């Protein structure tokens, strides 16, 4: 019997519906910038938050390609769960901008 294991998505669906390579570094950069903008945390915490986001993506999407919006939603949930509420609010407001 073959064993199965969950893995990170290889691709994401961008806002135009096009496939692009998955890059966890983009998540880390966005989380770090958000944390630094609010003064709640820096690079080390951004790395930990990124690890949590990627764990959720592995579990939720089982290697399928999530949309950018789905990834951002997981990032928001992760910020809230980590009690970085000011950053979560700023992140949500930023996402709502046209």
Shape: globular
Classify the secondary structure makeup into a structural class.
mainly alpha
Strand order of the largest sheet: 1-2
Q: List the helices and strands in order.
A: EEHHHH
The tally of strands reads 2
Number of helices: 4
Largest sheet: 2 strands, antiparallel
Task: Briefly characterize the structure.
61% of the residues lie in helices and 6% in strands.
Label this structure with key terms.
2 strands; 4 helices; two-stranded antiparallel ribbon; mainly alpha; 98 residues
List the helices and strands and how they pair.
Elements lengths: L10 E3 L5 E3 L2 H15 L4 H19 L6 H14 L3 H12 L2
Antiparallel strand pairs: 1-2
What would you say this structure looks like, in words?
- Helix content is 61%, strand content 6%.
- The chain is globular and about 35 Å long.
- It is built from 4 helices and 2 strands; from the N terminus they run ββαααα.
- A two-stranded antiparallel ribbon has the order 1-2.
- It has helices spanning 24-38, 43-61, 68-81, 85-96, and strands at residues 11-13, 19-21.
- The chain has 98 residues and is mainly α.
- α1 (24-38) crosses α2 (43-61), α2 packs across α3 and α3 packs antiparallel against α4.
